Amino acid sequence: MSFFRGPCSTIQEQRDQWERKRSRTARELVQTEQRYCQQLELVTTYFVDILKNKGTLREDIRESIFSSIKAIHSVNQSLLVHLENGYFGQGFDEFCPHLQHYNVYVDNIYNASKALGIQLKKNKAFRRFKRLQETRPEFNNHTLEDLLQLPIQRINQYKHFLQNLTANTNPGNPEFQQLSRAVTAVCEVSQRIQNNTRCHENYLELCRVQKLLKGRKTNVLAAGRWYIREGWLKKVPAKGSEAKPKMFFLFSDMLLEAEHCNPLHPTNGDKFTGQHAYPLQDCTVEKVFGHTRSQGGLLSLTFPKAKLLLMSSNQEDLNDWYQSLTSAIRRLQSKQTVVLQRDELRRRPLRSAAESYNTPSSSTSNNPSRKRNMTSVETSQHDQKHLTECERSAPKRMKQPDTPEQSSAETSTSGCVIL
Fold first, then answer.
1. Are 169 and 180 in contact (CB under 8 A)?
2. What pTM value is reported for the model?
3. Which is the most buried residue in 13, 164, 189, 263, by most CB within 10 A?
4. How far apart (Å, rounded) are the C-alpha atoms in residues 261 and 257?
């Protein structure tokens, strides 16, 4: 005897499965939120409040280290009350407008780590106080550095929990829209964390390259510059002499050629000397040979004022250089095109300026003597106005830099710079 399972039972089983997954996710969310709030309370009670009362740290240093963690703790306590009562949609709907406290914390996290390290190194009283607080049993062998990273980690956990809750909630449920909005808001903060992490890692790479270069003539720490890769390539000279190995550093806006210092030098034996900085803005790159699976190949790079022939005996490395160069040039040129188009829309029409010049002359055309007396004055005023209008209507390629690093980045785009 066989039993036929109708579509109603299948739909009901699917709903039951969704409900089980949702209940499991909700239970885990509440448990982790309780633990999270307890750990935040450790920081606010045993560090922020006591340090404020003792005066061990100045107020600006204390705010630099702990940032908005007290506001985060307050907001999450309110969220925990809703979650424990089962109001997940309402809880996150009221929680998301306060994510600005997380944004402040996220943007300050690397400055906080730096400020904490400085105080641990220089402030003996704070170093002793921190060690004493961390030995409390409530901390469970967690350090202050571990606890300060919790808000960053919690955002990624919220993203995971909310996506699971939304996926297992019936679209007809009133909480579905609330949870969907929460997913969007939390994902924005999560993306902000990822962007900040990439920017920080790029900054560390730029600092590493800067330390590899001897002296201060070559400055790679420029705003908006991204490190891409580095490696040894043989530079083929124009007159047919022997190709010499050079170290090349590829950035988002330039290719830096460097030569290794004398290894016997007492202080600069492991450093490089910057020789040429080639801007990528008007560069073209092509493979002279190396299209096949042969051993190595040759790349030709053409700049407005220079030409490079770079050779490698490693085919895979050569292909990687080619892809990296073409990708960097494409991104840089597309970015410049967008800037020019935006500035073109902001340009003031020259026709209106010309009409404004002609207006006073037409009023004096009926009086020749007066026109003769005013000729020199009008001519100088006309030239001055024309220069002013030309300055206003000229397309602005890049924003004027506020720092020496930015100015060095812009001047490097004009041509090959000999360092």
1. no
2. 0.72
3. 189
4. 13
